[in-house]
Amino acid sequence: MNGAARVLGGLTMIVTIWGPARVGWTQPTIPKNRIPAGLPSEIQQQFESLYATDPRQRADAAGRLRGHRDVADHVIPFLVAMLHDAETLYGEEALRRRSLISSFASRFPEPNSPGEVAARALATMRTETVGPHLDLLIARLREKDPHTRANVLRAFGEMPRLKDRRVMRPLIEVLDDPHPTVRQYAATVLAGAEDLPLAEAVAPLLANLGHREADVRAAAAKALGAAKDARAVDPLIGILADRNEEAHVRGSAAGALSKIDDPRRVEPLIVAAGDQQPALRKAAAAALAAVRDPRAAPPLIAALGDEDRQVREVTAGALGRYDNHWAVEPLIAALEDEYPNVRAQAAHSLGELGDPRALKPLLDALKDPNSYVRWHAATGLGELKHPRAKASLTEALQDESEVVRRAAERALKAIDRTTRI
């Protein structure tokens, strides 16, 4: 199942497990007559719209209020008071379109209720403004309504840096929640909260590797990777090797193993890199690139020639991030791939590796028919900072693509800075 389908699947699961939204729960738990007095009229109107009969109007008001950080102490309690609001905003197709154009990077599905919009609004307010109200959020995590609990977790999970240790015990408690999506969201929060003492959560996360829902198992695996705890290695290897397991769960196990520094992980990842399922080969290749073990070189070179173009693309992009200098020649060969995204990722990685052997191939790639490849080639040449690239980059200032022209300009400035030193 692809990423977009899993997002929609997660939303379907919520509706199926929890049943239809409770239409009576359309207002914040704070009475309307407690809206603060003396606010500017625009802000006052947005507060009042939180009580509108139209769920989209309530959601829009929640989204707009997050921008008023000067009155955050007034806004935050009302957003917290909206987290139970589960009325559906969009049909499946409209939601899919919104998720495709959304610029907000998140590990959670696109918001589809006023409560979910309020959760995102809370997460995007500055941490120092939310912190004093954290106990309000934690209290709602213990309510009976599963929508509320899930939305508290959304808010935690979308915060840029979740470091407050007050959340740790409540998060561990909901790893045993009766609703699978709440468990999944709790594990997802922990997977992105490496500043918290995650060792405390390892035992319940290991227990969730055996949960009946695949998405819970996948989220638990990712969180175990964030914990970097050796106790997880053997269970994760077991999932990785289980051919009856869902591909995305096995892929999550591969990603988790890449984060745990343990020699036991290498051989199972090599085996997974040759699996029949492309999704798993892709995840295993990315994990092996992160491992930086000499044994990983042959399967990664093979992955650059995989029949599946996404496996080739992910491998080419991953090899530059981990100082894999043995990969320079295979990446140069990948610049001839028929698929432009593979060529682009190869160019990007060659720039990151900074090896002078890449100079001429990147100069050639600067003339690629695909602008995405040319952009990465120009960026890569900026990383190499070699004076011999100046003439070709100067020509690229006239490229038909604006992003290529800008990349060439940045690369020339980087070379000039280096030559002046």
Explain briefly what this protein structure is.
This protein has 25 helices and no strands.
Can you describe what's shown?
- Among the domains are: 1-160, no CATH class; 304-421, Alpha Horseshoe (Leucine-rich Repeat Variant), CATH 1.25.10.
- 62% of the residues lie in helices and 0% in strands.
- The protein is mainly α and 421 residues long.
List keywords for this structure.
421 residues, mainly alpha
Using the alpha-carbon principal axes, give the shape.
globular
Q: Which secondary-structure class do the elements indicate?
A: mainly alpha
What string gives the helices and strands in order? HHHHHHHHHHHHHHHHHHHHHHHHH
* Low-confidence runs of at least 5 consecutive residues: 1-25
Helix percent reads: 55-70%
Sheet bearing the most strands, described? none
- Look at the structure and give the mean pLDDT: 90
Q: Hey, roughly how much beta strand do the residues contain?
A: under 5%
Continuous helix count? 25
Rg over CA atoms, rounded to whole Å, is 24 Å
Question: What's the total count of β strands?
Answer: 0
Q: Tell me the distance between the termini.
A: 51 Å
